[in-house]
Amino acid sequence: MDCINTFENNNINNNNNKNNISEIIKKTVEFVKEEINSYNDPSHDYNHIERVWKLAKNIAQKENYVDPNNSERPTELLELAALLHDVKDHKYLKKGEDENTCSNTIISFLTSNNYPLESAQKIALIVSQISFKNELGNSSTTQLLIESKIVQDADRLDGMVYQAIGAIGIARCFSFGAIKNRPFYGEGTMKLMNSDFKTVDMSQEQYKKQTSPTIDHFYEKLFKLQSLLKTETGKAMGIQRHQFMVDFIKQFNNELNNE
């Protein structure tokens, strides 16, 4: 009887969770699935979006975040930013699209679904602020919105690894390298792997144009992510994930050297 009651209660809770999702969230999920599908890249597919969405909600809860302008749905704006954070990503822009296409697309989609313009503009700003590329071009005094810090940490944590059950961030890195036809390592990779994990300084323009091997990307971006996490929750979650990447590169280096 207890097992049956537990099963029924779980079903009720799951149904309640589905019913609690607002219409704009439901529409955004469908919109994002269609947009992201065109990338044909497992490193930036809807599974990634969903993980970031869940991580952002988790971090928001632990950081006691609420939107003061929406008491009925206090995390809706944050969730929309998490869902939309990879729409019209600069890596997948088509001919005729530019850096403004992302913000314009987000605002157009949301307002066409009767979402307030001011809130739509804020979501577009959040998405622009979480970008690693854009952070390279910002000064250290740039003030991020609290929503930007939460979604940015969620995105970066998914770029590292996923707890102790698997290196999703590493898998995403190699997947992206395969899509871009990049080798695992090159002439300069061994020097990087013997540099005691010293990262590579890059400008925003250099990062946008880089075509280096996949392993090099750890030194250009992934090893920097832990120090760039903004929330206390994100920093705590990042410790284990960073170490997992370090251990992976150590093992990769050992195997290259037949050790």
Observed structural traits:
single chain, 259 residues, mainly alpha, 14 helices
Description:
The protein is mainly α. Helices cover about 65% and strands about 0% of the residues. Helix 9 packs across helix 12. It is globular.
Strand content: under 5%
Mean pLDDT equals 84
Subunit organisation of the chains: single chain
Rg estimate, integer Å: 20 Å
Distance between the termini: 57 Å
Quick structural gist:
The chain is mostly helical. Helices cover 63% and strands 0% of the residues.
Tell me the layout of helices and strands:
Layout: H1 2-19, H2 23-37, H3 46-62, H4 76-84, H5 101-112, H6 117-130, H7 132-136, H8 146-160, H9 168-179, H10 189-193, H11 204-209, H12 214-220, H13 225-228, H14 232-256
Helix pairs in contact: 2-4, 3-4, 3-8, 4-6, 4-8, 5-6, 6-8, 8-9, 8-14, 9-12
